[in-house]
Amino acid sequence: GSVKKVVDEDLKQQIGLKLLEEIPNFPLEEAKKEAAKE
């Protein structure tokens, strides 16, 4: 079970990176700034 969990985390990271690359205008940086303020 733990191996599958690690693979899932890997997939989530890869998918997240792909999304970041494909949506450069996505307001994620703004969200990060807001989160950093709190």
Model description:
It comes from Candidatus Blautia avicola. This is Helix-turn-helix domain-containing protein. Residues 1-26 form the Helix-turn-helix conjugative transposon-like domain. Pfam families: HTH_16. This protein is mostly helical and 38 residues long. The chain has one domain (2-37). It has helices spanning 2-22, 28-37. The relative contact order is 0.10.
Keyword list:
2 helices, 38 residues, flat, mainly alpha
What is the H/E order?
HH
Q: What structural class is derived from the secondary structure elements? A: mainly alpha
Bulk shape: flat
Q: How many helical elements?
A: 2
Radius of gyration: 13 Å
* Beta-strand residue fraction: under 5%
The poorly predicted ranges are: none
Give the total of beta strands. Answer: 0
The structural domain count equals: 1
The overall pLDDT average reads 83
Q: How would a crystallographer describe the biggest sheet?
A: none
Separation of termini? 35 Å
Indicate the percent of residues in helices.
Answer: over 70%
Quaternary status of these chains? single chain
Describe the structure in brief.
This protein is an all-alpha fold. The protein has helices spanning 2-22, 28-37.
Topology:
Layout: H1 2-22, H2 28-37
